[in-house]
């Protein structure tokens, strides 16, 4: 027994390189398509080329007889498989039955109608071309505003108005606010459809062992436990007979926070053929069949006093749901409503959300999920109000921010902002860019006919989804700490990271909390046979909730260790410190390793003492956490071509306490790139027949390295009182802050020409037209 | 069709169908799953490898075209258990998140330094113009290349 | 992602290739356009004749005041060749503007010009250079000017069984300035508009102006009216603006998701003015 106290260096707050990287940089990580199994078959899916059509008949004969083909299934075969679930519930929500293969009608291009199973992926692909479908093509509608206009073709014939749901929310006294207003500004603002485009497309490998009645489903998902519960239900399989593994997952951004037809379909196929079967989505399928994001048309009205005080906000939100509701689709625009007051004090809001069916890909959570849309709207409106009143955009924000002494601040939309100093990041950002000097430079540039803009966005982000009443399927998380007999520590988390770095940050937390070497810690996730249960990784929740669950599991564990330590030291007065249990009187101690060994060896345990060292904690958060920040974008515009140059991009984010600054920087950069993608380049475009025009990387503009500016990332730190780690979340911050700051910047550059608003993406052609013609 | 090629210093003599893409040969037949498939239009670069010393997208080539070629994939980059300087730099600079684009990205970045041992930021960014990353915003990738250049990873 | 089956042959000599092409084979050069189309099953050739194994098609040579570039010479070779950079910088600039490094490492001069993508980079440069395309067919060789070679979108004057053997461009003479400027379509990297300019100056006047434009219409073309306006002028800013305004004259401009016809026409003038200015400053 040692008596020295080891003072370990704290790891939380350090820029340490990631522990998950060695397998990723050597090409030895295992994504779904990297897996091979004895007897594995391959599936190719036959999909609708039409956005709306009836299926008169399907002939599978030629395909079934093609070389290598072992089976072909159509909707008739899979009719009894349960529908693809919608987990969102709203009053009056219309939920179309979402068969995994179409029965007699298709509702979007890419709708699956048959699956061909062969011994080889090339042969499966060949045979898919031989499935013949006799179509009766129907009129389609691809634009949500057109879809709810009279006379539009019905997407689902049982609901000819194409309205999927109407959701109203109101807080305060909006009518009074607008009646008392000295100024009212109105603007139609769109947040265009985007394609999440994780670099790894989806993929599923299903392995059914009939004799054991065991299904293993390897799927590229953010939510393996939800997939297990829901897909087992779709297949009529007992949940405990199903194991879901999310192996290495190549990005998600919300697009893999879902349950997809192919997950149940591969399970079905494997059960039918008695062999493992793999399906890997092509990029074109990914663009057509994996959820899209955004798809908003927002009509905003803001009432204010002449001094810039915001009195109230009205919003009519038309949201394109696509042809079906995926897991959370209808819930996403309700998050926009929650965040529509932004960081401002106004207590009077009214929102009407109309969810609309179109013959397009379903929309659902894409990085930010409702909050970028809301933030884009309110941050544009604040700039429009500032312009109307001749007030500086920074000043009007500072005037309306929730005051520091008002936290916890109850909002008009029913949230309680946990903590904040909303002026701090804005003031810090203004100091870094020397805002006053920049404005002077802009004025001078204008005199020379140059177009320069300064755009500010101050955003709030609902992080840490979330308290269970506000989150379909529960908003808690589960963490297990298991000390092995050798003293090594295994952390099991219900979070399911796919690039966010929790194999590192959770190990940092545990190393500090338990006082053990980080190299003795292993983080496991993503396998329902290993992790007790979990909700998953999305909504900037993994650290705030998954990390906290582990934190509490570690507290339980330390209690257990003290108990064993007390037995070993024969003392009732012990404490846990730096990986040891110390007798407070004698100063003697037992090491972590010794306690671990003794707990499993269980030689001298008093009666009713449970051997082993495992603790599990399910943590239910009492509230969301609310990150915030200020982004400033400085742009220059080529008046001849309309091309925008982002001269400077500064993000000052407050995500609470930071565990690993290197990883936080990465989250900010990636988030900003996606927000910048929306602001400047990305858009999913459908033609009037419901064909996706931007169906490949040839036409859907992803940000590339040479298009991105340098991003400066800075922070203020306001710990969250919601969890003991004081963390908030940062996964979506960059995306939320980027689009308003960039659009505000470009509108600012053109404001002297009478331009007040520009819808995204800010293509050079749009800008050129505004410069050439003034006005929008 | 019988072809002969060398991959990461090892000789292979498979019999392949002409239409078999080199990326499918590497991944499904040779069992080298480091290079990935991210699109079908050869625009994402996740499948980037070196053929005869030049970086190429292995989804844009048939295996038969690589007959007689010397191929280097991400799996062959580390030597004797020691990471290549570019791999080490990606690790140190947090040049990756989900890791899916990473093998192709590292190969493309290595090619930049093979031609230009001290590239500017702009040259680095144009050097990976053919590689998409959805996670990092590219900034830490640029830092990785600079860090690798600083330790003399270029030839 | 998976092409249909096809027969594949990789002849070692051009003569062997000609025989295979005569019997219906389709030539495969770098494959940078063809293979993605095959993967999407938009192209389904039954027999591919790989020209990549023919050794004497990969060359850059200088002879009699001209550069000869073999059909299978990669864009990277053209871009990085000291000979091309020194003697025909416009061509190396166009080569360097193509796609991305991996595509330039594989894509070839012959493949690109034979494909005749209306938004490709080479056509603008080859028009401005008054390049000659040497075509090999079963009956022997013939040479056509770039102006005659590009017929329509994805259509050239190549006949069935013929291939591009080499492209010939003039060695730049003293007093010549060139420039290639392009606005890329942001997703694909192809040109929304690309303008290649070659000017010669003598005695304070522009004595020769050649302007090739790509991306704007169905083919890369020579902007004759703009050239005429520029030749004989002093090349002042005003002269350049006036000439540049003519580059899209009479052109039926493309219109798509990425740029309307009006915008493309406008861009053509802007890029022409900038490219002429840049070229003239070097002349």
Describe the structure.
Chain A has three domains: 40-138 and 197-289, Aldehyde Oxidoreductase, domain 3 (Alpha-Beta Complex); 296-467 and 623-773, Aldehyde Oxidoreductase, domain 4 (2-Layer Sandwich), CATH 3.30.365; 476-619, 2-Layer Sandwich (Aldehyde Oxidoreductase, domain 4), CATH 3.30.365. In chain A, 29% of the residues lie in helices and 24% in strands. In chain A, helix 15 (502-514) links the parallel strand 20 (489-493) and strand 21. In chain A, helix 13 (423-433) crosses helix 14 (435-447) and helix 15 runs parallel beside helix 16. Chain B is of the alpha+beta class. Chain B has two domains: 5-75, Ubiquitin-like (UB roll) (Roll), CATH 3.10.20; 85-150, [2Fe-2S]-binding domain (DNA polymerase, domain 1), CATH 1.10.150. In chain B, strand 1 (5-7) and strand 2 (10-12) form a beta hairpin. In chain B, helix 2 (85-93) packs across helix 5 and helix 3 (102-115) packs across helix 5 (139-150). In chain C, strand 11 and strand 12 form a beta hairpin. Chain C is globular. By secondary structure, chain C is of the alpha+beta class. In chain C, helix 11 (237-244) packs antiparallel against helix 12 (261-282). Chains in contact: A-B, A-C, B-C. At the B-C interface, strand 4 and helix 3 of B face helix 2 and helix 6 of C.
Number of strands of chain B: 5
Number of domains of chain C: 3
Number of beta strands of chain C: 14
Nearest-integer average pLDDT of chain B: 97
Question: What is the spatial order of strands in the main beta sheet of chain B?
Answer: 2-1-5-3-4
User: How big is the Rg of chain B?
Assistant: 15 Å
Concise account of the structure shown:
Chain A is of the alpha+beta class and 776 residues long. Chain A folds into 3 domains: 40-138 and 197-289, Alpha-Beta Complex (Aldehyde Oxidoreductase, domain 3), CATH 3.90.1170; 296-467 and 623-773, Aldehyde oxidase/xanthine dehydrogenase, molybdopterin binding domain (Aldehyde Oxidoreductase, domain 4, 2-Layer Sandwich); 476-619, Aldehyde oxidase/xanthine dehydrogenase, molybdopterin binding domain (Aldehyde Oxidoreductase, domain 4). Chain B contains 5 helices and 5 strands.
């Amino acid at each position: 027994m040692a008596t020295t106290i080891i003072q370990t260096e704290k790891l939380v707050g350090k820029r340490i390189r990631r522990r998950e990287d060695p397998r990723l940089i050597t090409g030895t990580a295992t994504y779904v398509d990297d897996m091979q199994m004895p007897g594995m078959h391959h599936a190719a899916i036959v999909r609708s080329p039409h956005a709306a059509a009836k299926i008169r008949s399907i002939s599978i004969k030629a395909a079934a007889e093609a070389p290598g083909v072992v089976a072909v299934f159509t909707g008739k075969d899979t009719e009894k498989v349960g529908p693809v679930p919608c987990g969102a519930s709203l009053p009056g929500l219309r939920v179309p039955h979402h068969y995994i293969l179409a029965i007699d009608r298709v509702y979007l291009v890419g709708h699956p109608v048959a699956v061909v199973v062969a011994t080889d992926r090339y042969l499966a692909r060949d045979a898919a071309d031989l499935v013949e479908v006799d179509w009766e093509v129907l009129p389609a509608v691809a634009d949500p505003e057109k879809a709810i206009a009279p006379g539009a073709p019905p997407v689902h014939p049982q609901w000819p108005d194409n309205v999927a749901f109407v959701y109203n929310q109101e807080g305060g006294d909006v009518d009074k606010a607008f009646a008392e207003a000295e100024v009212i500004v109105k603007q139609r603002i769109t947040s265009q459809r985007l394609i999440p485009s994780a670099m790894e497309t989806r993929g599923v490998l299903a392995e059914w062992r009939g004799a054991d009645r065991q299904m293993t489903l390897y799927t590229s998902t953010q939510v393996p436990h939800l997939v297990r519960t829901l897909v087992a239900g779709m297949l009529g399989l007992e949940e405990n007979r199903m194991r879901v593994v999310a192996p290495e997952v190549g990005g998600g951004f919300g697009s893999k926070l879902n349950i997809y037809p192919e997950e149940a379909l591969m399970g079905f196929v494997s059960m039918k053929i008695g062999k493992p079967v793999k399906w890997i989505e092509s990029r074109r399928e990914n663009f057509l069949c994996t959820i899209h994001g955004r798809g908003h048309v927002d009509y905003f009205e803001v009432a204010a006093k002449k001094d810039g005080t915001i009195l109230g906000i009205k919003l009519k939100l038309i949201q394109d749901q696509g042809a079906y509701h995926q897991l959370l689709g209808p819930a996403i625009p309700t998050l926009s409503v929650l965040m529509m007051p932004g960081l401002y004090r106004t207590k009077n809001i009214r929102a009407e959300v109309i969810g609309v069916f179109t013959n397009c890909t379903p929309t659902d959570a894409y990085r930010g999920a409702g909050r970028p849309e809301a933030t884009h709207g309110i941050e544009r409106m604040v700039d429009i109000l500032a312009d109307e009143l001749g007030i500086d955009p920074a000043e009007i924000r500072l005037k309306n921010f929730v005051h520091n002494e008002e936290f916890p601040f109850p909002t008009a939309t029913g949230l309680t902002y946990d903590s904040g100093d909303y002026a701090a990041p804005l003031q810090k950002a203004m100091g870094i860019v020397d805002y006053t000097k920049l404005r002077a430079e802009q004025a001078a540039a204008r005199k020379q006919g140059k177009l320069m803009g300064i755009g500010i966005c101050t955003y709030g982000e609902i992080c840490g989804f979330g308290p269970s009443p506000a989150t379909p399927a529960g908003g808690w998380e589960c963490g297990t700490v298991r000390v092995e007999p050798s003293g090594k520590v295994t952390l099991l988390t219900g979070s399911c990271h796919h690039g966010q770095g929790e194999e590192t940050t959770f190990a940092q937390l545990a190393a500090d909390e338990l006082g053990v070497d980080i190299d003795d810690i292993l983080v496991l996730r993503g396998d329902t046979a290993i992790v007790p249960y979990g909700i998953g990784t999305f909504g900037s929740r993994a650290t705030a909730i998954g990390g906290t669950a582990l934190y509490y599991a570690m507290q339980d564990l330390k209690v257990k260790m003290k108990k064993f330590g007390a037995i070993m030291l024969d003392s009732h007065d012990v404490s846990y410190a730096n990986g040891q249990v110390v007798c407070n009187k004698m100063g003697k101690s037992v090491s972590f390793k010794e306690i671990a060994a003794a707990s499993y060896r269980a030689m001298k345990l008093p009666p009713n003492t449970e051997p082993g060292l495992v603790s599990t904690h399910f943590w239910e958060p009492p509230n969301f956490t609310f990150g915030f920040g200020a982004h400033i974008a400085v742009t220059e515009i080529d008046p001849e071509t309309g091309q925008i140059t982002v001269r400077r991009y500064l993000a000052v984010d407050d995500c609470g306490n930071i565990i690993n600054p290197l990883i936080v920087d990465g989250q900010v950069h990636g988030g900003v790139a996606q927000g910048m993608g929306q602001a400047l380049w990305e858009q999913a475009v459908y033609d009037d027949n419901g064909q996706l025009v931007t169906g490949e990387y040839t036409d859907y503009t992803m940000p590339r390295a040479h298009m991105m500016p340098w991003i400066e990332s800075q922070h203020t730190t306001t710990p969250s009182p919601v969890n003991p780690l004081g963390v908030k979340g940062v996964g979506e911050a960059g995306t939320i802050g980027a689009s308003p700051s960039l659009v505000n910047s470009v509108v600012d550059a053109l404001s002297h020409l009478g331009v007040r608003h520009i819808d995204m993406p800010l293509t050079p052609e749009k800008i050129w037209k505004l410069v050439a013609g003034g006005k929008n | 069709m019988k072809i002969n090629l060398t991959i990461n210093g090892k000789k292979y003599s498979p019999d392949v169908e002409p239409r078999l893409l080199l990326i499918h040969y590497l991944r499904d037949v040779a069992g080298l799953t480091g290079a990935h498939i991210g699109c079908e239009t050869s625009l994402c670069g996740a499948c980037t490898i070196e053929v005869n010393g030049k970086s190429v997208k292995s989804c844009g080539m048939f295996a038969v075209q690589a007959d007689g070629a010397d191929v280097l994939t991400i799996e062959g980059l580390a030597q004797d258990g020691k990471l290549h300087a570019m791999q080490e730099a990606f690790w140190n600079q947090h040049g990756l998140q989900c890791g899916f684009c990473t093998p192709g990205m590292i190969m493309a970045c290595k090619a930049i330094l093979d031609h230009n041992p001290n590239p500017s930021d702009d040259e680095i960014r144009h050097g990976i113009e053919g590689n998409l990353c959805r996670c990092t915003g590219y900034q830490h990738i640029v830092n990785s290349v600079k860090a690798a250049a600083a330790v003399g990873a270029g030839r | 992602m998976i092409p249909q089956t096809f027969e594949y042959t990789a002849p070692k000599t051009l003569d062997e290739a000609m025989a295979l092409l005569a019997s219906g084979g389709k030539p495969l050069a770098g494959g940078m356009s063809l293979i993605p189309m095959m993967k999407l099953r938009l192209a389904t050739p039954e027999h591919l004749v790989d020209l990549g194994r023919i050794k004497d098609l990969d060359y850059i040579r200088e002879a009699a005041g001209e550069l000869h570039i073999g059909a299978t010479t990669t864009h990277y070779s053209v871009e990085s060749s000291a000979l091309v950079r020194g003697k025909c910088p416009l061509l190396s600039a166009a080569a360097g503007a193509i796609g991305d490094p991996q595509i330039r490492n594989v894509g070839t001069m012959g493949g690109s010009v034979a494909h005749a993508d209306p938004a490709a980079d080479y056509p603008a440069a080859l028009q401005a250079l008054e390049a000659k395309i040497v075509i090999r067919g079963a009956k022997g060789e013939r040479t056509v000017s770039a102006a005659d070679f590009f017929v329509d979108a994805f259509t050239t004057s190549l006949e069935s069984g013929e291939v591009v053997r080499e492209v010939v461009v003039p060695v730049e003479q003293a007093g010549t300035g060139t420039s290639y400027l392009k606005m890329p379509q942001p997703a694909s990297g192809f040109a929304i508009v690309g303008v290649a300019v070659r000017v010669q100056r003598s005695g304070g006047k522009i004595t020769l102006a050649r302007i090739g434009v790509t991306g704007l219409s169905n083919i890369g073309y020579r902007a004759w009216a703009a050239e005429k306006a520029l030749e004989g002028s002093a090349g002042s800013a005003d002269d350049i603006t006036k000439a540049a305004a003519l580059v899209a004259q009479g052109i039926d401009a493309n219109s798509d998701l990425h740029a309307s016809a009006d915008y493309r026409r406008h861009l053509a003038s802007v890029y022409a003015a900038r490219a002429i200015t840049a070229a003239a400053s070097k002349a």
